[in-house]
Amino acid sequence: MSKLELVHIIREKITKDGPIPFADFMAFALYHPKYGYYSSPGEKIGWEGDFYTSTNVHPIFGTLIARQIIQMAEAFADDPFTIVEVGAGLGTLCRDILVTIAKENPVCYEHCRYMIIEKSGFLKEKQKKRLNPLFPGHISWSNQIPKNLVGIVLSNELLDAFPVHRLTLGEGKVQEIYVDWEKDTFVERLQKPCKPALTAYVEEVGLPLDKTYQLEINLSSRDWITSVGEALSKGFVLTIDYGFPVEALYHPRKPNGTFLCYHKHKTNEDPYQHIGEQDMTAHIDFSAIIASGEKVGLKSCGLTNQMHFLMGLGITQAMEASGQKMHTCKEAEKEFLAMKQLMNPNGMGKTFKVLIQSKKIPDEIKLDGLQFKAFGEI
């Protein structure tokens, strides 16, 4: 029923105002307060949902991020700081991070507090039920990042689900995909871009207009990193997502863009089916995130892939330990294969990128996750 209700709401919007940019359609489908994909009840993440993240593969992912956070915390000396996770899913990453910090550096644990920014009421209740008994008084929830924040802003697969503008280039023109309603179905129309920033970015990147090309531009991700930089007084931003620097993202080898939908662990390119019941994503332009961050005082410490990030923090040692037990312990074999999946250069290891930005942080602070950033292509 929720799908039909959401289709009706979008159709009424189009009937009243005319065709809407695809970004607006995507915003309805994912974030409508009652019927949107991320707002409605139901399992989204994990083996019973539509997709899984690195946190579902093996807890070593959260453990190693915690070790990077412990290093970052040296910049705060003995002052209190806050870890802010934006979009925490089922709370798995939060759990794994806090368990590791409490175990490996109790002083750091006492100095830190954890805040979750979560729009979904359904997920928020799940997080509270799961996390509060484990870490009483240590976690809070909010609708926005607090001003004058001293700490670390963390996100894992957040920005890729922000609504994107879908553009087509060709015949010397830049056009945007709009969504219309005709003969009881959604149809696409090509019109003039709804915002000057879209055409300006195509020109800035230098994409040729004489070749047929489709791409996505995520303006919301730039607005987000700007708001993070403005709120952060001192600290780090740790962003994990799939994407590329601009020169690799908008490349002739990718003439059809990177937009995809996820439904029950299968991908498709049709956003007009399973409306409100499937995830929609597009790869992140990390160059735009870095440039927008610099305008609000965020310095780029480095961009690397997940494989090199985890290597820098010690995953190979953990894999070796499991590997030595594989022949005598089935559980060790499972652990080894799960960690291998996180590192797979043909999968998660290179698909996911890690960007660290900082504000008012001394250069000598060690970031082991970036020590192999220069090895191989991102």
UniProtKB/TrEMBL annotation:
GO terms for molecular function: protein-arginine omega-N symmetric methyltransferase activity. It is found in: Mitochondrion. It holds the Pfam family Methyltransf_28. Keywords: Methyltransferase, Mitochondrion, Transferase. Its main location: mitochondrion. GO terms for biological process: methylation. One of its GO terms (cellular component) is mitochondrion. The lineage of its organism: unclassified sequences, metagenomes, ecological metagenomes. This is SAM-dependent methyltransferase, MidA. SUPFAM superfamilies: S-adenosyl-L-methionine-dependent methyltransferases.
